C-alpha cells in the first residue's frame, strides 16, 4: 500500500496515511480536535482514531495533553504507531500512545485492553457515519471506517462514559441525521449538550454536527449558532473555520 506524508496545522505535525483505499484525515478530524479546550495536564482518549489525526491535533495545540489513540483495525493502528515515531513528530510522540482495541469492549475486557474506568478527562470520537444500508465502500479499510452499526452511538458512548472521569467532556463529530441517536445514547450519561451544525455556505443544508457534553451534568441541551465553512462565494475557508482547522484556536463551550 502506497503512503503519503501530509502536513497538518501548517506543519505542526505530520501523518503517514494510505494514499488510497482507506479513510484519509481532513477537516472533520481537525474540527473535532478543536472541541478540546483545556490547558491543564489532561488525559484524552481518541476513539476510532485511525491514523491518529484528531489525537495528534489535540496534542499539537495543547502541550499538557496526553493522548491515547484507540483503533480496532490492525492496519490503521500500525499507521498511528508509525506516526508517533516519525522524525517530524518527535516533539509530540512521547505524549501519544496507541491501543489496538475495539471501542465496544465492555467490562474486564475493556480494562485489560488499556481503557480503565474513570480515567480520561476528555473523550473524542469521529464514529463511522454511513448507515449500514448505504452502499459500502469497495475497499475493506474504507468500508470499516465509514459503515456504522445500528447501535453504534449507544455502544461508543457507553464506553466513553465508562472511561471518563465525572465531569469529563465528550466531544464528537457526526452527520446531522444522527442527532436523534446521539441524544438518545447520551441519555443520563452526558448532559449540558451543546450542538453546532456545520454548513458549507449560508443557505445550504448542514453536512456535519458537532456535539459536546459533560459526564453527569444536569444542564439543558443548547443549539449553538451554526458554523459556515465558506462565504457565499469562493472556496476559501471562513476565518473562524480556518482557525479551527489549523489549530490556531479552540471551539470553546458556552457552559459546563
UniProtKB/TrEMBL annotation:
The keyword DNA repair does not apply. Its EC number is 2.1.1.223. One of its GO terms (biological process) is methylation. Gene3D superfamilies: Vaccinia Virus protein VP39. Pfam families: MTS (PF05175). PANTHER family: TRNA1(VAL) (ADENINE(37)-N6)-METHYLTRANSFERASE. This is tRNA1(Val) (Adenine(37)-N6)-methyltransferase. It comes from Rhizobium lemnae.
Amino acid at each position: 500500500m502506497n503512503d503519503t506524508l501530509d502536513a497538518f496545522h501548517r506543519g505542526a505535525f505530520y501523518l503517514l496515511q494510505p494514499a488510497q483505499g482507506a479513510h484519509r484525515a481532513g477537516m472533520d478530524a481537525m474540527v473535532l480536535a478543536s472541541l478540546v479546550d483545556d490547558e491543564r495536564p489532561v488525559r484524552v482518549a481518541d476513539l476510532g482514531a485511525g491514523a491518529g489525526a484528531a489525537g495528534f491535533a489535540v496534542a499539537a495545540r495543547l502541550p499538557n495533553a496526553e493522548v491515547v489513540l484507540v483503533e480496532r483495525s490492525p492496519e490503521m493502528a500500525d499507521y498511528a504507531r508509525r506516526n508517533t515515531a516519525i522524525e517530524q513528530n518527535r516533539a509530540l510522540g512521547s505524549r501519544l500512545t496507541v491501543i489496538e482495541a475495539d471501542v465496544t469492549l465492555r467490562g474486564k475486557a475493556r480494562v485489560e485492553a488499556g481503557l480503565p474506568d474513570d480515567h480520561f478527562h476528555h473523550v473524542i470520537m469521529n464514529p463511522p457515519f454511513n448507515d449500514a444500508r448505504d452502499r459500502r465502500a469497495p475497499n475493506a479499510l474504507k468500508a470499516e471506517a465509514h459503515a456504522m452499526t445500528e447501535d453504534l452511538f449507544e455502544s461508543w458512548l457507553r464506553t466513553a462514559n465508562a472511561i471518563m472521569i465525572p465531569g469529563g467532556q465528550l466531544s464528537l463529530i457526526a452527520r446531522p441525521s444522527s442527532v436523534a441517536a446521539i441524544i438518545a445514547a447520551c441519555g443520563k450519561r452526558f448532559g449540558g449538550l451543546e450542538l453546532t451544525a456545520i454548513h458549507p455556505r449560508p443557505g445550504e443544508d448542514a453536512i456535519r454536527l458537532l456535539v459536546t457534553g459533560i459526564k453527569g451534568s444536569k444542564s439543558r441541551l443548547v443549539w449553538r449558532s451554526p458554523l459556515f465553512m465558506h462565504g457565499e462565494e469562493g472556496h476559501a475557508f471562513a476565518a473562524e473555520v480556518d482557525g479551527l482547522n489549523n489549530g490556531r484556536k479552540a471551539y470553546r463551550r458556552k457552559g459546563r
